């Protein structure tokens, strides 16, 4: 976590709704996480995207207790993301603030009936893709999440870029394509974010997805901070 320039990250999140972390996961950790996709004992469910119209490919949600590295990332990333999220709440004129520690936020989720863990591993093969979407899962939604690329572009796969769209009121959508390196994360808005216009601050809707893989296999880990119903 010490490698991340949080001042830059906060600025880019305010400006564009996404920011990269730089490489924070070593190759060995990435490879270990990707190999773990075949260990069903650590997951609570599997989703085949084509069955639900989500795209092509598949993903699995981790079960509690989370693997140590997943738990650590979720716990250590949250406070920095919460600081940005609370800044967004203030800009939007909202009274609600997010707790400083992730454990306190999870208590709120569980009290609302959202008790299922949401960190996940995603697997894509050639011609697979992920449609633009939002990861909401219940009434309580933390405004930011993080996705880490576990595979090496150009070596393990080609294509498969992370894509983010921003739907501005009465305007056409803006698209952001985020190239990532193995072990690098992208922090991005889950649902919406504040934008300052000529008449004050307004909300823009955000969606994210993955473009079509042209070849190879791509693994990604998603760190979502709110739990699911």
Strand order in the sheet with the most strands: 1-11-7-15-5-4-2
Rg measurement, Å? 17 Å
Structural class per helix/strand content? alpha+beta
Biggest sheet layout? 7 strands, antiparallel
Query: Unreliable segments (pLDDT under 50, ≥5 consecutive)?
Result: none
What distance lies between the first and last C-alpha atoms, to the nearest angstrom? Answer: 30 Å
Instruction: Report the strand count.
Output: 15
Structural notes for this entry:
The protein has helices at residues 6-16, 27-35, 49-52, 68-91, 102-111; strands at 18-23, 43-48, 55-56, 58-62, 120-124, 129-133, 144-149, 157-159, 162-167, 174-178, 184-189, 192-197, 200-210, 213-216, 218-224. By secondary structure, it is α+β, with helices and mostly antiparallel strands. Strand 9 (162-167) and strand 10 (174-178) form a beta hairpin. The two termini are 30 Å apart.
Structural descriptors:
alpha+beta; 229 residues; 7-stranded antiparallel sheet; 6-stranded antiparallel sheet
Compact overview of the structure:
With 229 residues, the protein is of the alpha+beta class.
How does the SSE layout of this entry go?
Blueprint (H helix, E strand, L loop, with lengths): L5 H11 L1 E6 L3 H9 L7 E6 H4 L2 E2 L1 E5 L5 H24 L10 H10 L8 E5 L4 E5 L10 E6 L7 E3 L2 E6 L6 E5 L5 E6 L2 E6 L2 E11 L2 E4 L1 E7 L5
Antiparallel strand pairs: 1-11, 2-4, 3-6, 4-5, 5-15, 6-13, 7-11, 7-15, 8-14, 9-10, 9-13, 12-13
Helix pairs in contact: 1-4
């Amino acid at each position: 976590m010490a490698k991340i320039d949080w001042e830059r990250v906060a600025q880019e999140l305010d400006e564009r709704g996404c920011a990269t972390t730089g490489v924070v996961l070593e190759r060995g950790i990435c490879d270990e996480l990707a190999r773990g996709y075949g260990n069903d004992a650590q997951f609570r469910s599997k989703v085949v995207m084509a069955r639900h119209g989500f795209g092509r490919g598949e993903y699995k949600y981790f079960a509690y207790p989370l693997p140590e590295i997943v738990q650590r990332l979720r716990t250590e990333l949250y406070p920095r993301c919460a600081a940005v999220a609370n800044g967004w709440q203030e800009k939007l004129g909202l009274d609600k603030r997010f707790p400083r520690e992730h454990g306190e936020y999870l208590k709120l989720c569980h009290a609302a009936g959202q008790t299922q863990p949401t960190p996940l591993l995603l697997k894509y093969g050639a011609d697979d893709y992920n449609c633009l979407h939002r990861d909401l899962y219940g009434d309580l939604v933390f405004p930011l999440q993080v996705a880490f690329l576990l595979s090496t572009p150009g070596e393990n796969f080609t294509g498969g870029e992370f894509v983010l769209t921003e739907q501005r009121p009465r305007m056409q959508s803006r698209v952001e394509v985020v190239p990532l390196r193995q072990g690098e994360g992208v922090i991005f808005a889950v649902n919406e974010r504040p934008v300052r216009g000529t008449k004050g601050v307004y909300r823009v809707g955000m969606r994210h997805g993955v473009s079509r893989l042209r070849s190879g296999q791509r693994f990604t880990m998603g760190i979502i901070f709110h739990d699911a119903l």
